[in-house]
Amino acid sequence: MYVTHQVPDGLRIVDILPAPAPPEHALAEARNLWEAELATRPGLFNGRIFSLGSIEGQEARGFMAEYMWYVAQLRAPHLYEHLRVRSLAVSGLVVAGGHVLFGLRKPGLAVEGGLWELAPSGTIHGDLRDKDGSLSWRDVFREELREELGIDAPASEARAFVLVEDTDTHIWELGVAVELKLDHREVLAAWASLARSEHSEMAAVPLDDVPRFHTLRKAHMVGACGPLLRAYGLIPA
Question: For 216, which of 32, 71, 125, 126 is 20 to 30 Å away at the CA?
């Protein structure tokens, strides 16, 4: 089930909570699942991602979790009892020349392969921080713009407009919107020039055609897309 939450004014993401201490049997299961994942996807990297614990005022508080824990928990949901990973990702709603960008994730990806998503999207990590030490969702969004679409935009133009929680997988999405001063054909050309991409296809959908696009592909779309589009007013409530 998906639940939407209001974004606190002046949102700050801070990794100030202690990570859980899972029992050895849970860690062993997580390691085994990770090894099995590496056997089919040897390029996976066990970095560290932000896991949301609570929202207190303007602060989203959490801890940094191993990506291995995140993947293991998706494969074996009962591990949530011990790992407590509630990942927080930016999910971009990019408008260019009156079109919204959707990307089709490659089928071999570890998470949500073969599904359409709003592009760009990416999990918040600890490498990009604001001057006050908080994790910078704006800089993560810009990083994903460059890596997934091959373009850039001033961080100040990005606007966080909704938080979407998946109560089944414990994944949270921070909807981030930006209206580019580019034509959608320029964005598609930039994406096509990328040497590497997580997407096998990129679609620029006219704003008034988004409801039809969503209806036709809903069964093959990342679940959070519906709540994100609804929160932005692009599909009916």
Answer: 71
- What's the distance, CA 112 to chain centroid? 11
Between 210-217 and 225-232, two packed helices, what is the crossing angle to 10 degrees? 160
As a three-state string, the secondary structure of 77-129 is HHHHHHHCCCEEEEEEEEEECCEEEEEEECCCCCCCCCCEEECCEEECECCCE
Q: What is the pLDDT of residues 53-69, one digit of tens each?
A: 999 999 999 999 999 99
Distance CA(66)–CA(187), nearest Å, equals 33
pLDDT at 157: 86
Report the alpha-carbon distance of residue 137 to residue 66 in Å, rounded.
Answer: 19
The model's pTM is 0.95
Domains of the chain are 2-232 (3.90.79.10)
d(CA 235, CA 237): 7
In whole angstroms, give the CA distance from residue 108 to residue 166. Answer: 23
